[in-house]
Amino acid sequence: MRLDDPSVSRLHAELVRRGPYVYVADLGLSRNGTRFNGRPVARRVLDDGDVLTFGLPGRMGGIPHEDITATRSSVAQPLPS
After folding, report:
1. Where does 5-80 show beta strands of DSSP type E?
2. Measuring CA to CA, how many Å separate 39 from each of 23, 25, 33, 61?
3. What is the rounded average pLDDT of the residues 32-54?
4. CA atoms within 13 A on the CB side of 7
């Protein structure tokens, strides 16, 4: 995802989905870092309502709780044979 903000580095952080979880990992390549609920973070599992800040303070909407719940339940289903 590209954020058009000069305070956000080109390789700032990554969001990764592993099974039912999504986590943020700061790549350590930015001057302004990544914040999770207002605190600097290196890597952290996300939950509904968490606030991530990349670069200088600003806000971006997240994944609606219904979508997270649907994703978690679909991940738990076995793959068809």
Report:
1. 13-18, 21-26, 34-36, 39-40, 43-45, 52-54
2. 15, 13, 10, 18
3. 89
4. 9
Q: 61-78 burial string, b = 16+ CB within 10 Å, else e? A: ebeeeeebeebeeeeeee
Would you say 56 and 7 are in contact if contact means Cβ atoms under 8 Å apart?
yes
pLDDT single digits (tens) 28-37: 888 888 988 9
The per-residue pLDDT for range 11-25, each reduced to its tens digit, is 888 999 999 999 999
Global pTM value:
0.57
Q: Burial, 59: exposed, middle or buried (Cβ in 10 Å; 0-12, 13-18, 19+)?
A: exposed
What φ, ψ does residue 13 adopt, rounded to 5°? -155, 170
